[in-house]
Amino acid sequence: ITKGQALCMFYLESYTEENVMKLTETLEEMGNLEICYSDDPTEPVLCSCAIINAKPFKYHRY
Asked: Which domain of life is it from (predicted)?
């Protein structure tokens, strides 16, 4: 699963290039948040970059 696909899944949007660009911009505007997953890549979550870095075996980036 790509980061773009995960963003569309998280926001319940259709996977299109337009939606990926829009949602990527939205995520960047949030600042210190990143889309990631814990066990299942098909269940994306938003976490702070600090948490992802502090728990690299629990949270995985796309």
From this structure: Eukaryota
